[in-house]
Design brief:
The chain is mainly α and 544 residues long. 75% of the residues lie in helices and 1% in strands. The chain has 19 helices and two strands. The protein has helices spanning 18-36, 38-49, 53-81, 83-102, 109-137, 141-169, 183-203, 217-240, 245-265, 281-311, 316-332, 334-343, 346-365, 375-401, 408-448, 450-461, 467-473, 477-482, 491-525, and strands at 9-10, 13-14. β1 and β2 (13-14) form a beta hairpin. α6 packs antiparallel against α11 and α10 packs across α15.
């Protein structure tokens, strides 16, 4: 391991400096802000860029997908080539991605998605590297737990402050159009990332641990292709049709490369993911619960973002209230969650958290979007936030406790990848379900109502309606809801179709969370764990 000369020895090992801790904490705070930024500005992005419904889903997942695909590999890269270098590279990529998104031209959805992908790659480098830099300089349970708790608090703060930052900055009018002001949120992300980069260069110590580490390129390539193809097929299915060649091809490619990934991982000396973990029944069960629960949570967050910003057309600042409610319990329960894990079986804690998410989602599913009051959704959002904080704190503990001590680090890394995969599935699947349902409902209404069909034909034939308005109305359910009536004949139909469709989204998330709760209670909570309790688990990636 290499360190800077400024580090002080601790039993012959380098000690974590305050500068390294600050750089690590600031970097993960910035990465978390980048992950959360789209939540409150989706409505403005939809109106300003005239996005299709599936393009709006990609705005969120374009950042999340790289985090899922590359997080484990970047952990190895930092060990091999130096963590300070990788942390600065990650921050630099977030700067570039944020600036590209800020400079998105009118109609330039592809430019925005490019910026999100680049920023997501930067975040994928930051999350594991910031933790590794802290771990490299802490050598007792107490000091590591203290430092990691500060790191986790920064993630919570990022998820809490990001919607407020986006909401406040989106009030700035750009070129006379309030809908175009969403770009300033990405500019703020780029500025914060630049400050993070400077902090790391000036204050952080370097560390590495190349012994016994190597890159598994075949594994990384096969799993990246498999997961991207799966997500592409799920997201595009709502727009291209589930029987289209591109969607079917996406699913086929996902299956083929997933099989190739398994074959590759069984043959390499140092695999990206240790598949023998899944021979452990308890770990496999915890993996299923992790994916279901994280899918339910971020599916809920995405559903809430679309409901408040794109359907009910709240301003970004008002939309941020919903995400403050979703995140504030993470702040309140921060000192409580670790004590719960020490007093109770982690399986029961996990089950209880998942149950709270499920209950909150079922309540939200019963509240139609026609109820425009933010107060109507306040309590269930608070309940879901409490459930997420409770559950996600227990996830790593349950996974680590299910394997022998010598495999604890391996189990923690695998759980991190599974957690991020579940998070990425949330917007993809909920968007596909809701948008397919809404599009079918609108088509059915138009075909069954001669007056509505006639009004739509006249609208499309009118020379007085600007092409961008026609394009938005005909681009999908969210586009049809974005233009007011008059002149838009589909406004009311689209609004009610979307209200019902995204209620189904909440229902799907609730069922997934309750299934996860039942599995955790029956298969994990009722069993005595054979391995020692881990008092200071790897902290969660907090999202909104």
């Amino acid at each position: 391991m290499t360190t800077s000369a400024a580090s002080e020895p601790h039993g012959g090992l380098p000690r974590l400096t305050s500068g390294t801790l600050l750089a690590s904490v600031f970097a993960c705070f910035v990465a978390q802000i980048g992950l959360s930024i789209p939540a409150v500005i989706n409505g403005y992005i939809n109106k300003d860029l005239g996005t299709t419904s599936t393009q709006l889903t990609w705005v969120s997942d374009a950042f999340l997908v790289p985090v899922t695909l590359f997080e484990l590999t970047f952990g190895v890269v930092g060990d091999l080539f130096g963590r300070k270098r990788l942390l600065t590279t990650g921050a630099g990529l977030v700067v570039v991605g944020g600036l590209i998104a800020f400079l998105t031209p009118s109609g330039g959805v592809g430019v925005l998605l490019t910026g999100q992908v680049i920023a997501g790659v930067g975040a994928a480098a930051i999350f594991p590297t910031s933790v590794a830099m802290i771990a490299a300089g802490t050598h007792t349970v107490r000091e590591r737990a203290h430092s990691i708790s500060i790191w986790a608090a920064a993630l919570t703060a990022g998820g809490f402050m990001s919607p407020v930052i986006g909401g406040v900055l989106a009030r700035i009018h750009h070129s006379g159009s309030p809908e175009a002001s969403w770009r300033y949120a990405f500019l703020a992300m780029a500025i914060l990332a630049a400050l993070s980069l400077a902090t790391t260069l000036a204050l952080a110590q370097n560390s590495s641990a190349p012994q016994g580490r190597s890159l598994d390129w075949p594994g990384q390539i096969t799993i990246a292709v498999a997961l991207f193809a799966l997500l592409y097929a799920v997201i595009q299915g709502a727009e291209d049709g589930w029987a289209s060649l591109t969607v079917i091809g996406g699913f086929v490619i996902a299956v083929v490369f997933l099989v190739l990934f398994v074959l590759v991982e069984q043959r390499v000396d140092k695999p990206l993911l240790q598949l023998d973990l899944f021979a452990n029944r308890m770990f496999t069960i915890s993996a299923v619960v992790t994916v279901l629960g994280m899918f339910a949570y971020l599916g809920t967050a995405y559903d809430t973002s679309i409901r408040l910003s794109a359907i009910q057309e709240y301003t970004p600042l008002k939309t941020s209230i919903g995400f403050v409610l979703l995140n504030i319990m993470g702040v309140i329960l921060f000192p409580v969650s670790s004590r719960m894990l020490q007093r109770f079986n982690p399986g029961w804690v996990l089950a209880g958290g998942m149950a709270l998410i499920g209950i909150g989602d079922l309540v939200l599913a019963a509240i139609p979007a026609t109820n425009l009051s933010i107060a109507a959704v306040a309590v269930p959002l608070l309940v879901i936030g409490a459930g997420f904080k409770t559950a996600v704190t227990a996830i790593t503990v349950v996974a680590v406790n299910s394997v022998p001590t010598q495999k604890a680090g391996m189990a923690s890394g695998a759980t991190s990848m599974l957690r991020d995969f579940g998070l990425t599935l949330g917007p993809a699947i909920i968007g596909a379900i809701a948008l397919t349902n809404a599009a079918d409902a609108i088509a059915s209404k138009v075909s069954s109502s001669p007056s509505l069909g006639s009004a739509l034909q006249q609208f499309n034939a009118s020379s007085k309606v600007p092409p961008p308005v026609k394009g938005a109305v005909n681009s999908g359910p969210l586009g049809a809801n974005a233009i007011p009536n008059p002149p838009n004949p589909l406004k009311d139909t689209a609004f009610h179709a979307l209200s019902h469709a995204y209620s189904i989204g909440y229902l799907v998330c609730g069922i997934a969370a309750l299934v996860a709760a039942a599995i955790a209670a029956v298969m994990i909570g009722g069993r005595q764990h054979e391995h020692a309790f881990v008092a200071a688990p790897e902290p969660e990636l907090v999202v909104d």
